[in-house]
User: Fold this.
Amino acid sequence: MDWWLIVEWLIKAVVLVLVLLTGFAYLTLFERRVLAFMQVRIGPNRAGPQGLLQPVADAVKLIFKEELIPDKVERLIFILAPIITVVPAVVIAAVVPWGPPVPFPVFGRTITLQMADISVGILYITAIASIAVYGIVLAGWASNNKYAMLGGLRSSAQMISYELALTLAFGTAALMAGSLRVIDIVEAQKGVWFALVQPATAIIFLVATLAEVNRAPFDMPEAEQELTAGYHTEYSGMKFALFFMAEYIKMIAISAIAATLFFGGYREFSFLQNTWFSVDQNWWLGPIYLFLKVVVLLFFMVWVRATLPRIRYDRLMAFGWKVMLPLALIEVMITGLFVVLGLPWYVNTLLALIPFLGAVYLVDRALTKKETFGRLSHGSK
Amino acid sequence: MTFELVLFFILAAIAVATAVGMVLSKNSVYAALYLVTNFISVAIFYLLLDAPFISLAQVTVYAGAIMVLFLFVIMLLGAEKIAPELNWRDMAIPLVLAAALMVEAGLLFVQRFSQPFTASADGAAFADPMSMSVTLFVDYLLPIQVTGVLLLVAMVGAIVLSKPEKKGQA
Assistant:
């Protein structure tokens, strides 16, 4: 067995976990500051310069909080649930490449800037994403609390529904690249980003991602007015912090995946290809590009949260099943056609936008006519 | 003993233990969780056999989709505490069948171990997504299509069954 390989993996894993955890801490600050900026407030700025030490203060506060375990909970699952939630959030980022392969001068070996370069990387992401539901469902059930239970059930229903559109969006990216390996998908976007070839799928992906990580306007599981705090009602102290952590780490991971699949990953803009700014000439630019893209996507998520109100639950499910899923299916078909016929990419862009605009029009019409939407949402009159 | 063999036996122990736990568990939520663990350990078996595609498909479909739905239904119905009473008379035939299966598996196991292990000639290439899709969509196109139609029919049936009856038509 190659021991250097194990050392390499160990270093990469530690770096990845550290980046994600630090990212989580500073994402909370980033979100609060950006929200404050959008709401014409100042936001946390007391601890350290510009509030930069706020995450440390928050962590210390959470660690010293009393941890309650209510009497009638299912103890084992109650304690396991936060852990089951955090683990998929962390491991899902393992297949995201941070940069091109680097020739490492000391041991004369090439190092890939990626935890695991597996031939079915896309499938790995869908597998982990589909397992991520368990923690939330089990937390809701183990709490032995009606509101927590409803929150858990809602979230599982929501995640299952939006997973379909999400997986189809993954499929579209894989189709365009002709590979399930993540690094091949990035390299296939050397010329044109997939977000330009398939703008509709990129938008479907971003919307489904918001639902997958339970972010506003899809933060149904924790709709305060209806469910107090949803699945984590009974959690306090570090266990609550773990749920919190999982949500934010998932945001980072899924932004990195979105950047990788649709926005060129670690690659530069195509017009910079033969210049000094290309990752082919300076490999260390790769992680920087990826970081910038992730920050932009995270800003987008916070922006959406600051702008849109929460969607009603039945409408959310109707939207997932009756708009997102058929639209994603049509886009897969169009992309398949485009790949088989070998059309130039802008034809695909135009073709992809037709059903998308049609869907936007139909939803808009349904929303303006109340009776129609009543029929669109299952069961109500 | 090689590293893989050790891994195999640990995994096998986990798979058998979770399967037994699933059957004996009094609480259906725990039973479902045992089954999830079982599915995941089987997925790792596939990984050991150089078949990452099937392994991850197993996790996505069984552990990720089907078992979440199971859990969902158990929790929605509040059925977790309803433990069926064990009636040994009803269990007679299943027990005999299970015993037969175990004996058969044991015989195969012994027979397999008496021969040297032979890895398939094209090893990893056999299970990579590209050659697998060629096998599925070129060599076995018709069975795949038929399966697809069957699944579609089942789906349409499920949707029709779950449709609320219109008033006045009952």
Observations:
- The mean pLDDT of chain B is 81.
- The interface with chain A takes residues 3, 29, 33, 36, 52-53, 56-57, 59-60, 63-65, 68-69, 71-72, 75-76, 80, 128-129, 164 of chain B (CB under 8 Å).
